[in-house]
Amino acid sequence: MDLGDLAIFQAVLQEGGITAAARRLNRVQSNITTRIRQLEDDLGVPLFQREGRRLQPTPAARILQDYAGQLLGLAQEARDAVISNAPQGQLRLGAMENTAAVRLPPLLADFHQRYPAVQLELRTGATARLIAEVLAGSLDCALVCGPVEDARLESQPFCRETLLLIGARGRPPLLDDRPHTLLAFDSGCAYRQRLELWLRHSGCAVDRIVELDSYHAMISCAASGMGLALVPQALLACMPAGDSVTCHALPDDIAIADTVLIRRRQQRHAAVDAFAALLAACATIVGESAA
Q: Looking at residues 191-218, what average pLDDT do you find?
């Protein structure tokens, strides 16, 4: 069914005839008659009974009347949503696990209170996968480890993390000549990539990498003596097992990691704009500015 035909059908019903509907819609009567017949042909049922110069709605027309109002209302709502600058609809946000756990909860609560018309969806993952999903369009924006060098994306500084190398208490994780086991996320994790690069440059041997899917598991395994892990200091301070590990400071080029918000360049989205503005206002509060 054509929305234009439904609008004409609704006008004929409301005005009580072709002539009045044509006057209201500023159309010729023959056009109104043709469009009503097209709608009847499309549906396969008569919508009006012609009694002289008057049209009487059929039972089918009374049924269609309700649906026509709903469809035309939804169409107008869709038009308003597309052209509106007010944040609404769905916001698909990605974030690293530590960012989601430590930095985002109060910000998301604030965002939800400010913009209740936005349906927020949060997905966590490694930096490489989040970048790929933003580029593919399955995420509207994401908080990842920066810098992100891709001309298709624009970045906004959010906060700065300090990364620590941890191991079991009583066994300082200062690397020596023996091979070590690393506890890490998958290879798409930017923090893991930093650690592996530093280890190679330091000449340290790694005999195996155990991939885990949460910091809870990673810190607990490190505390039990299973291996070494690289974790954000702010997250470690929130974890119960954080008191059961020994920390080893790293060089600044490895330890200092900026978190940035990425989005498709020149792609405007009112909800993303609102979220980015909230992050900008809170960036110096939740952590050191990454500017």
A: 87
CATH number of 3-83: 1.10.10.10
Query: CATH 1.10.10.10 in the chain, residues?
Result: 3-83
> How far is residue 206 from each of residues 84, 198, 231, measured CA to CA in Å?
55, 12, 18
Q: Write b or e for each residue in 251-286: b if 16 or more Cβ atoms lie within 10 A of its Cβ, otherwise e.
A: eeebbebbbbbbbbeeeebbbbebbbebbeebbeeb
H-helix or E-strand containing 278? helix 270-286
What's the CATH number for 161-256? 3.40.190.10
**pLDDT classification of 196: cutoffs 50, 70, 90:** confident
Region 181-203 average pLDDT: 88
Rg (CA), the chain: 30
pLDDT digits (tens, 9 = 90+) for 229-259: 999 999 998 887 777 888 888 889 889 999 9
Q: Which residues pair with 161 in a beta bridge?
A: 257
Helix axis angle, 3-15 to 18-25, nearest 10°: 120
Say if CB 8 and CB 21 are below 8 A apart: yes
Measured CA to CA, the distance from residue 22 to residue 15 in angstroms comes to: 9
